What does this fold into?
Amino acid sequence: MTFDPRDSRGDRDILSLLDRRRIPKHVGCVMDGNGRWAQKRGLPRTDGHAAGEEALMDTIYGALDCGVEWLTVYAFSTENWRRPADEVRFLMNFNRMLLERRSDELNEKGVRIIFAGRRDWRVPRSVLKRIELTEAKTAHNRRLTLTIAFNYGGRAEIVDAVKALIASGAKASDVSEKAIAKYLYINDAPDPDLVIRTSGEYRISNFLLWEIAYSELVFTDVLWPDFRREDLFKAIYEYQGRNRRYGKVGDSN
Ligand code: IPE
Ligand code: IPE
Ligand code: MG
It folds into this structure.
């Protein structure tokens, strides 16, 4: 059930097409295509990242509108350190400033902001500090949890979880899926129901490897800076047409 763009209803009405009893609790988002968005306009890649701020804010408001309780966005991967130093520096400062600019507004809307990723020496101290302040300021909120995957890698998360489990004194016989899940960066979230990737790339790029075992995946050609809440609603519409079987025989069989 892909959204039919010929549908005469305006984009804003997509929300009214959604089954409000089957809104995904947790949506993940690989925010990709900033560089290409900028290149198409003859702008430096970093302008594409800057333009992604509006896309992120609109998506968060869309999540609030339709009742998504967990939104996890991929902002910087453990592999993104391989980019040119200037771009990496821009992304570090940009993410810090985005929090400085937006966290009061999000706090007022009842958004809890948390970070998932390695808080290691590569992340500038000023960024780590802003992360901690933002988490503390918004910790009491429950309407929506926005998790920012930053210096995040799915494999690194599993490695870190296993290390922490061993450090806790676990024996081989104590290792189980539940025990590993307890030590993931974020361990109180339900697994994502839906993961969206923008920019026409059909891959996961090390995002939430453990957690997406049974997530529905939706890919869109929209470049991240052009993504708006209507695109989130379209992805949820597509999700609602899927038959989640979890290895069992489907409902229609
Ligand atoms: C996604 O956009 C943002 C980050 C990875 C930080 P890109 O910068 O990957 O944009 P493209 O894929 O090169 O167009
Ligand atoms: C994934 O996008 C990481 C983020 C969106 C932060 P990339 O642009 O880094 O992924 P690849 O390199 O195309 O796989
Ligand atoms: Mg990319």
About this structure: The first helix runs from residue 14 to 17. The chain has a mean pLDDT of 95.
